[in-house]
Amino acid sequence: DIQMTQSPSSLSASVGDRVIITCRASLSISRYLNWYQQKPGKAPKLLIYAASTLQSGVPLRFSGSGSGTDFTLTISSLQPEDFATYYCQQSYSMHPPTFGGGTKVEIK
Amino acid sequence: EVQLLESGGGLVEPGGSLRLSCVASGFTFSSYAMNWVRQAPGKGLEWVSDISGDGDSTYYADSVKGRFTISRDNSKNTMYLQINSLRAEDTAVYYCAKSDRFGISSAGTKFDSWGQGTLVTVSS
Fold it and tell me: Is the pLDDT reported for residue B89 higher than 90?
């Protein structure tokens, strides 16, 4: 199975901050990388697919980049509604499609 | 609007069984593969199983193979997960998630809609 490693596992940031979350795959996955946002007690929500394509309705302050084994999710100016846990997921090998361990973004 | 509604969770003793359901609306159900993804309390996301749009192809995580069975009834817009021989480590919220395509083995598949989840607790 392809292992996905996210860092950091948690971070504290203020409204307006630029936040960067990284995700590393255990082998090259081209650009087959998705990002999800999960708020407490809620279902995950697709944010970005194919490493950098924003899902419909997702604010432009979210962006994704990377290819091969290293990827980043950037929030350009953190908003109150962005405090959540973020997961990367590789879709290069769908059986199984593996998730990173998550990055919890908390209020400083 | 896509809606996915899971049900069937509950408290069950180790070794017991449950059948989870996911009722879909707002899209042509038979045209899309579906998935079960679980999340243990305070933990991350773990993919469990998927099924193609016509139900002919299925896959399972190694952790549940032989104990869980995924199925779907396209006439009822419903997906199921039969879970047997439950263990404490199966305790989790189980989410159904819609794939963005019919098949289940294509690279690039994304889970574009999720249900609210149903909690399965395995305890004596």
Answer: yes
Residues A19-48 pLDDT 10s: 999 999 999 999 999 999 999 999 999 999
- CB atoms under 10 Å from CB of B49, counted, come to 23
B63 touches chain A (CB under 8 A): no
* pLDDT tens per residue across span B1-45: 999 999 999 999 999 999 999 999 999 999 999 999 999 999 999
Rounded distance between C-alpha atoms, residue A96 and residue B111, angstroms: 13
DSSP A18: -
Q: Would you state the structure tokens that stand for residue A101, as one six-digit string?
A: 């361990």
Q: How does pLDDT run across A95-107, given as a tens digit for each residue? A: 999 999 999 999 8
Cβ contacts of B104 on chain A, cutoff 8 Å: 94-95
CA dist list (Å): B111 to A40, B64, B66, B98, B100: 19, 20, 24, 5, 6
Strand partners, B58: B51
Q: Using CA atoms, how far apart are residues B91 and B73, in angstroms rounded to an integer?
A: 26
Residue of A nearest to B63 (CA): A96
Q: What string of DSSP letters covers A37-72?
A: EE-TTS--EEEEETTTEEPTT--TTEEEEEETTEEE
Cβ neighbours around B111 below 10 Å, total: 28
